[in-house]
Amino acid sequence: MKDRMTKRYVAEFVGTFFIVFAPAALSATAHRSGGDGSLLSAALVSGLVVLAMIYALGPISAAHFNPAVTLGFAVAKRFPWKYAAPYWFAQFAGAVLAAGASWLLMGPGGAHVPSDPALFLRNIGTEILITTLLMMVIISVATDKRVSSAVPALAIGLTVVVGVLVGGPITGGSMNPARSFGPALFAGGPALANYFIYLVGPCVGAVLGAVLYEAMRLEGEHAAGAHNELFEALEDIDHPEPDPSQATLL
C-alpha cells in the first residue's frame, strides 16, 4: 500500500514540476533571441504541458497537479481527505523545485503579479471565475464513467489555454496555487506580496466549480471518484477485503 501511494505522490510531484517549469522557462527566455513572450504562447505552453502530463501520469495519480483541484475533489467527496495533505505537499514541492530549476537554467521569470495590484476584488474575482470554469471541466470529464479516457487531457488542457488567455492580462491566469507559489518564492517582492490572490482565488474557484457541478449532475450512477477509478482504488486500500485464509474459526 505504501509503495503504491508513494508512486502517486511522486507522480504529483513530477507532473506539477513540469507544469510549473514549462511556462516559467518560457517567460524567462522571452527576451532572448528567438524567445516568445506573447500571451498566446504562454497560454499554449501552459495548456499543452497540462495535457501532456495528464496523458503521461493520469493513470497513476489522477493528475491533479494543482492544490486547488485536490481541494475541489475532496470537498465534492471524489477524493479522500486523508490523502489531500500528501498531495498538496508533493504539488508545492514540485512547484518550488521547478521554479528553482527555471531560475538557475533560464533566469528570472514566471512569477505572477496582477497588472494593477490595487484592484484586489477584480484580481481575486478573475482567479475565482477562471478556476471555477477549470474545475467544472475537470470534475465533469474526470468523474463520469462514460467519458473516454482520451477526453480529459484534451478538455482540461484547452480549458487552461482559455483561462490563461482570459485571465492573463489581469492576473496572469494562474488557476493553481502551486504554479504561482514556486516562482513567487524566488521572485519575492510584489509576486510574494500578492500571493494571497493566487492562493485564495483558485481554492475558492475550485470549490465553487466542484460544488456547482455536483449540484447539476443528473445521473449519479455514472459518477466515479476520478478517471481510472482512483477514489475506488484508495477506498480499497483503506478498507481491504478480508483474507479468507486469515479467518478465525469459532
What does this structure look like?
This protein has helices at residues 2-28, 39-61, 67-75, 84-105, 120-142, 151-167, 177-187, 189-193, 195-216, 230-238. It has 250 residues and is mostly helical. It has one domain (2-238): Glycerol uptake facilitator protein (Up-down Bundle). The protein is globular. Helix 1 (2-28) packs parallel to helix 4, helix 2 packs antiparallel against helix 6 (151-167) and helix 3 (67-75) runs antiparallel to helix 4 (84-105). 48% of the residues are buried.
Structural class: mainly alpha
Which CATH architecture would you pick? Up-down Bundle
Evaluate the radius of gyration: 19 Å
- Number of DSSP strand runs: 0
How are the secondary structure elements laid out?
Layout: H1 2-28, H2 39-61, H3 67-75, H4 84-105, H5 120-142, H6 151-167, H7 177-187, H8 189-193, H9 195-216, H10 230-238
Helix pairs in contact: 1-2, 1-4, 1-7, 2-6, 3-4, 3-9, 4-7, 5-6, 5-9, 7-9
In short:
With 250 residues, this protein is mainly alpha-helical. The protein contains ten helices and no strands.
Primary descriptors:
globular; single chain; mainly alpha; 10 helices; Glycerol uptake facilitator protein
